[in-house]
Every structure is written in C-alpha cells, then in structure tokens.
C-alpha cells in the first residue's frame, strides 16, 4: 500500500507524511513548492516536483510508485487573498482537483482523502457547527473547497472513487523543523512578533464572548495528521465513511486565551495591542467532532499549551 500526498511539502502535508511514516505506510509526495519546502519531505520519501495541473506528471507518479490511494492537500489556501485572486484560486483548487481525479481514473486508483475547510461554512448561524450545518462560503477559497467536495462526489458516483472530505478549522502547532510559515495565520504571526520584539495584536475585544475576543477552533496539526491516516486506513480496508467530517474541538479557544498561553509558555510578559475588528469576523466558530471521533478516531490529544510550545520550539530562529 502506497499513498500519494499532494502538497506533502507544505506545513500540514509534511505532518501528514510523517504520520503515514510512523504508521508504516509508504508515501510519495507531489508538490510544486509554491508554498511548500523541499526540506520538509523526509529523506527516503520519493518526491516529485510537479503541479496538480499537470495530469501527465500525476499519472506518471501514480504508476511509477504503485500508488493505491491519494491524500489531496495541494491547493491555494489563503482565504483573504483569494478575494483578490479568484481565478488563480479556482484554477488551483477546482481545476487542479479535476486533473488529479483524471489521473486517478486513468490509473484505477479509487481511494481519496480530501483536505477541505471550515471556510465552506462561511459565518455559521449556529453556536456549534456540525456536518449538517448549511454551507455558505464567503470567499473564493471557501467556494473552491466546497466545489472540490462536489466534484469528488460526482467522480465517486461516475467512476467508483471512494472518498471522504475532512473540513479543517484552525490548524496550529508543529513537529520540530516543520514550522507553519503562513503570513496569514495567527500562530506564526504571534511567533514572528515575539521573536522580533514586537507586541502581538488582537483584532477587536468587544465580541459577545466571555473575554471579548473571538473564539475559534484550534486543533494541533499532529492530531489532524493522525485523522488522515485513520481515514486512509478505513478506505483501504473497504469501510464506508461519511462524505464529510469536521475536525473540531467542540469548545474552542479565544484569541486572548491563545495570547495568555504564549506568555506562559515563552516566559515573555506582554499585553497584546488591541486593534479594530476585522470586517465580517464572527464572535464564535466552533465545530462538533463527534462523527470523526466515531469513525476515524478523531481526538484532541494536545492542550493549548502543547500547541503553543510546539509552535514556539519550531520557530525558524530556534
């Protein structure tokens, strides 16, 4: 059994690759390195530098390495930037997924775990998001992920592809040497500010939450990666999975709680600056992970202190 991991040189993808390795499952990585890092791919893991828009390269990689299943993480993942770059976002996330499916059909590969997103929900109108919550994406990124789910489901019906989509919320933490380098995510922004001697910033402290800062679901990337392995194993064993799973905590953390954890873990005494709200930021987005716990062993095995400590230890200057 060998699994192809698209985007396996990226932050989340590299952790998924490590999790497969720890489970004794062979992987091959395809990544165009537009945001990934070649040195995030472990020695001994086959690496193909190619775009998911290149059907021929994908087909060759699948055939050359005897691939039996795919974890599809490659894509353009910046929701805010996608508003300015909708055509690029759709090309990478929708057209790219279509090319991958074409390569899978051509080679007879039928198992697929898809990296989806909480952005498919937009601003939920409920306190606790379940898989039955209506989807209202509010960015080209969220729209492209939802269309990707539809496209995969259509290919499943037409070509027998067995699949599940994992909707991520806020993925944080790191294994050593695999830092999150996104210029848009909260954890790397806080780490960068602290390492540069600047004060981290909170965007708004007047939300309808216990401490006034907005509440989000934060999940450790190692827990997330383990869920991918469990989903892949289930599909490979012929088990039927739900079409979609939320990988959420069920209770969430506020931005202030995250800041407090950074101060505690790093020993740096700071009071965050308070800036204005960002337009459209909801008070609270928290997801129920019950279905994923039932079917693929999803669990929050890391505390907020674990999340912060691992992100701080993996910072580039450490």
From TrEMBL:
Pathway: Carbohydrate metabolism; galactose metabolism
Reactions the enzyme catalyzes: UDP-alpha-D-glucose = UDP-alpha-D-galactose
Pfam family, one: Epimerase
Enzyme class: isomerase
Stretches that traverse the bilayer: none
Cofactor(s) essential for the protein: NAD(+)
Protein name: UDP-glucose 4-epimerase
Protein's organism: Miniimonas arenae
């Amino acid at each position: 059994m060998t699994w192809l991991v698209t985007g396996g040189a990226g932050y989340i993808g590299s952790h998924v690759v490590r999790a497969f390795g720890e489970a004794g499952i062979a992987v091959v990585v395809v990544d165009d390195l537009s945001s990934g890092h070649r040195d995030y791919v472990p020695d001994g893991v086959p690496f193909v530098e190619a775009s998911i828009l290149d059907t021929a390269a994908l087909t060759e990689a699948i055939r050359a390495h005897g691939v039996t299943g795919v974890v599809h993480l490659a894509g353009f993942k910046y929701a805010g930037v996608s508003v300015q770059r909708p055509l690029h976002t759709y090309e990478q996330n929708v057209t790219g997924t279509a090319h991958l499916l074409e390569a899978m059909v051509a080679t007879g590969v039928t198992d697929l775990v898809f990296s989806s997103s909480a952005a498919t929900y937009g601003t939920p109108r409920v306190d606790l998001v379940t898989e039955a919550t209506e989807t209202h994406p509010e960015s080209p990124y969220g729209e492209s992920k939802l269309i990707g789910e539809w496209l995969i489901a259509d290919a499943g019906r037409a070509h027998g592809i067995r699949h599940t989509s994992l909707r991520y919320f806020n993925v944080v933490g790191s294994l050593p040497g695999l830092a999150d380098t996104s210029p848009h995510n909260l954890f790397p922004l806080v780490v960068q500010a602290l390492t540069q001697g600047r004060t981290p910033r909170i965007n708004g402290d007047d939300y309808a939450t216990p401490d006034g800062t907005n509440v989000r679901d934060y999940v450790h990337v190692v827990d997330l990666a383990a869920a991918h392995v469990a989903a892949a194993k289930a599909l490979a064993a012929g088990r039927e999975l739900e079409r979609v799973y939320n990988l959420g905590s069920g209770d969430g953390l506020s931005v202030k709680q995250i800041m407090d954890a950074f101060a505690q873990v790093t020993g740096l005494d700071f009071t965050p600056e308070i800036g204005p709200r960002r337009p459209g930021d909801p008070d609270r987005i928290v997801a129920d992970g019950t279905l994923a716990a039932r079917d693929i062993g999803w669990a929050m095995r890391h505390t907020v202190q674990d999340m912060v400590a691992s992100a701080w230890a993996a910072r580039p200057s450490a």
